[in-house]
Amino acid sequence: MLAIAAHDTAGQFAWLWHIYLVLTVVVGVLVTAAIVVAAVRFRRRAGRPARDLHSAPRLEAVYLGVIVLVVIGLLAATYRTENHEDALTARPFLRVQVTASQWQWQFTYPASGVRVSAHNIGSQHPRFADLVVPVGRPVLFALRSADVLHSFFIPAMRFKRYAYPDSTNWFVLTFPQAGRMLGECAQLCGWDHAEMRFVVTALPVARFRAWLARQPQGVPG
Amino acid sequence: MTVAGTTEAAAAPEPRVDGWIRLVASTDHKSLGLRLFGLAGIYFLAGGILALFVRSELAVPGMQVLSHQEYNEVFTMHGSTMVYLVVQPIALALGVYLVPLQIGAPDLAAPRLALWCVWMQLAGGVIMYLGFLTTHGAGPDGWTAFLPLSNATFTPGTGMDMWVLGVIVANAGQLVLAGVILATILLRRAPGVSMLRLPVFVWTEVVTTLMVLVSFPALIAAMTLIYLERQFGWNVDPNVYLNLFWFYGHPNVYVMFFPFLGCVAEVVAVFSGKRFFGYTAMVFSLLAFAMLSMSVWGHHMFTTGRSANEYFALTSTSLAVAAGVEYFDMVGTMWGGSVRLGTPVLFALAFLIQFLVGGLTGIIVASPPLDYSLNDTYFVVAHFHYTLFAGSVFGLFAGIYYWFPKATGAMLREGLGKVHFALMVIGTNLTFFPMFILGYDGMVRRVADYPHRARWELLNSLSTAGSAIIAVATLVFIANVWVSLRRRVPAGNDPWEGHTLEWWTTSPPPRHNFTDLPPIRSFSPLLELRLDEEPG
What we know:
The complex is a heterodimer. By secondary structure, chain A is α+β, with helices and mostly antiparallel strands. Chain A has 2 domains: 9-45 and 55-86, no CATH class; 94-214, Immunoglobulin-like (Sandwich). In chain A, 33% of the residues lie in helices and 28% in strands. Chain A is built from 3 helices and 10 strands, in the order ααββββββββββα. Chain A has helices at 9-41, 57-86, 205-214, and strands at 94-101, 104-109, 114-117, 130-134, 138-145, 150-154, 159-163, 169-174, 179-185, 197-203. Chain B has one domain (27-533): Up-down Bundle (Cytochrome C Oxidase, Chain A). Helices cover 68% and strands 0% of the residues of chain B. Chain B has 17 helices and no strands. Chain B has helices at residues 2-7, 19-25, 29-58, 68-102, 111-130, 158-187, 200-232, 238-255, 258-272, 279-293, 309-334, 343-365, 368-374, 378-408, 414-440, 454-486, 525-533. In chain B, α5 runs antiparallel to α6, α7 packs antiparallel against α9 and α10 (279-293) runs antiparallel to α11. The interface between A and B is large, with 80 and 82 residues.
């Protein structure tokens, strides 16, 4: 856990997911086994009538106690992870303004006056907007929509957030490694929703700085 | 046809009513229930055909069958049909048919109101579907129709207005129908049938109708807000709409679950030859579940950044405790029993195991950090189809195979039933399990197209193949009904050694259900009677 940065949402997800997945599989197998065993072991046979067994309050209470303990454990793990992911960091390395609109993404780097966008409506070979970010540093995002509800989703980062037209959502992501990733709109937003994608390029800090310096500037923050 | 049989007796002076008048105006709860069933069955086939269009488009990446606009209309109508016109009304139709029989009542408490609800059901669906004939097509904004996407700027056209009105009409009918069923349970019980002697199925109807009464007004309010924004230029806060919609939406998923759980409980008890295990615990867990269900809606909004995530994670995960009681009691009912593995119980067991997959993945998406990844992806689509299709629809088929003899007087064919069952299990899991992996991989829902990736293409084509198997299974079921009604195997009053009052009367029951009743000292009076007769 120590090795995972608080806003490395992919790493945070992986830690929590494995807890839930193992538990889900174990419970699923046990309960399925109980159902199958009960149905097969007690299937109808001549000369064996049904026993009138109609409650076992003490056993049921113990069983419920176990479920309650498991629920508490799961919630503790969930709260711990969520506190890491949802906290806003005091000193972000970079701020990016994300604007979603039907059916495109726009990324603004207000401190540098840089803006990246791409129109891809109905195009045969759409060029998606490229969100370029540094590796290993917390990036503060300010997300907003220009029209309907959208949802900013980076599957590889295991993170998404609604974009509202009437309020801004703030969140911090720390990209753990360099590479290119798919970004999608996750919230139905009209006819071209399926093609409302973007590309995420995570670069080492030095290369990110160089990229930022190469961009045309002058967009008011 | 049954009328011809009874005229010989000539005892009943009731005027003979023509078939079509009965279809239009009968207030007999059995006829009302069957008409609701018939309507929902037609809507189910329509919604199923739309699902096949969806799966055809998604079989491979790229656009082949539909345009983006058509795809949005088709999946919207698929979802809204299945929720508003199929599973919700069937959940209530089961109550309309079975509740008076199980509580020893001659009829519903307000039969003419119930008749009105049948017509609202027909009208609501027809209004929604007529949208396909308008210039801009039917409603394209998903069954949730979030604002501002669903306003007149972003979704112009009469089709969307008709969708909103159709949803209001159908759900207003169901709201009133739930009141009728609850009033029947509270006011029309036969002497001796106390609240703690209600069969488990009737208890599931109590909690279902309570949830309908509290939550459906929120849906009608939300739809009204869409209409006001579309027609009168209101400017509704998108978050207000989200909260209203999900305040309805989450109790509603249990509306679409409990009556089918009730079917399964009855089937498992009768086919085990035992009374239901842990009856009191079950009743209180149902009530606790229903109460808790009113405080979990925010888990649909974990990724909005504007929801009390910790609170809703707590309430949603706690549902596992109530659900745990239900599973414990089902296994306990079989334990020590004498289980007959007929078609109804096969569907009931598959319901339990497959719903478990839906329920456990529900615990996963009840964790906000996991939902940040899985929300609005195919993982959620897989999750709710495991609860609604692999769960509720299987529970429904358990109930249909179990009560068909009561409603028609004829048994369904056991061989065809087992073929139907096998195809359903294969088709369902092949269709919906790959969606878990797609969603985990990040494929978002409500898209007609997806990026080229070998793994996604394989999983999507498996899913499409599964949907074809479900279609074949449905044809087998229709054939089974056809054959069973044509060449009838008479059922008699009680083909299954039933526990509850509906098996006391004839199949199908007469106009006012009962001429006499056995002594009622528990929730399974017929089982008691049989145990009293058997020495030892």
